[in-house]
Amino acid sequence: MSQRKPIYVTQPDMPPLEQFHAYLAQIWDNKMLTNGGPFHQQLEEELCRHLGVEHICLFTNGTLALLTALQALRVTGEVITTPYSFVATSHSLLWNGIKPVFVDVDPDTLNLDPRRIEAAITPQTTAIMPVHCYGQPCDTRAIGAIADNYNLKVIYDAAHAFGVRHEGSSVLNQGDLSVLSFHATKVFNTFEGGAIVCGDARTKQRIDRLKNFGIVDETTVVAPGINGKMSEINAAFGLLQLKGVDAAIAARGRLARAYTEALAGVPGIRCVQPWTEPDANARDATNFSYFPILVGPDYPLSRDALHARLKEHDIVARRYFYPLISSFPMYRDLPSAAPDRLPVAARAAEQVLCLPIFPALADSDQRRVIDLIRETA
Ligand code: T4K
Hints:
- The protein has 377 residues and is an alpha/beta fold.
- It has helices at 17-30, 38-51, 62-72, 88-95, 140-150, 201-210, 232-263, 303-312, 343-351, 363-376; strands spanning 7-8, 55-59, 78-81, 99-102, 125-129, 153-157, 165-166, 169-170, 177-181, 194-198, 215-217, 220-221, 269-271, 291-295, 315-316, 352-355.
- The chain folds into two domains: 17-239, 3-Layer(aba) Sandwich (Aspartate Aminotransferase, domain 2), CATH 3.40.640; 244-376, Aspartate Aminotransferase, domain 1, CATH 3.90.1150.10.
- It is built from ten helices and 16 strands.
């Protein structure tokens, strides 16, 4: 039995504990624990500045934020979405009584393929819910053009896209709404948490009411809202995390570069997001939230065999996103879930492996991961 500590696919970036004490002392002192307290307010303001967005509404987690985003825009009927994501994306549709319509992904980016969206639109379609998978921006221009033509809403599941810039602006400014996750496994975390980004004060007001039971004041309730409020402890942790997030993303970038260089030329291995020199004007910037590789037929081991081999060496890589959402029992009988309609997503789900990437990953541990992959080739 090995005594080595496992190397996980990710580990949260923990700020110095002593620094958190000061935040805790303030919470103890003013006794505001939740319901839009001072740290909640401050985190919303600091995130707007940091991300370059107009308005943000904090949530308990990303899933409740997705549920509420659909409610906020009164989305009904059918929504076009990707089968290649974490299951929360389409669960948020089912929880709202909406029928997900799965459309295949682009072979390069593994994001919803805009060339296939129009064929899936019916009179019941009211919205598109794409995912910026692994933080890689969707083809937002093409998706925006289709949405305009057919008068559809666009809600981006941007759970992986904290700090990502696209064509000169935050990718979170795309579409009608964008939804973030601040789960422990994300680039920026608040233990659990999430947010909706929106462009106008009226929508923010509606979302803020929806996440607080629909309450307007002591005697007025205007909507069947839910409890999606972020607590002061989570907001305080977020404020502290925010101070280190740029350095954390830079550290991830160095690891991504090392993987890309070391795995270049390994037969059968394709890095999904090739490392590119950061753009000096930050017109485009990624966050290296995951490091997915595709294990193709030219590699001597299958993806599952490589996954198992790494595990034997205490390296816990993850098959994000396998199985496809469309194959789970609550979705698989939908006509759009038929595997032959989703060949690109199905192949990616069979080949993908996300390698460990997080700021505290030691170079020597990353080397072990790389050597194991290369030795086998
Ligand atoms: N949309 C998309 C596209 C998403 O990816 C997600 C969440 C959502 C929506 C919903 O957002 P949230 O409601 O979660 O805010 C994880 C996360 O639970 C989930 O947030 C995430 N996506 C998904 C991709 O991954 P698991 O079940 O794979 O996590 P788990 O517990 O196996 O953790 C992975 C590794 O991370 C562990 O092996 C060890 C490490 N870890 C994990 C935790 C929780 C730590 O080191 N510390 C920790 O506290 O789902």
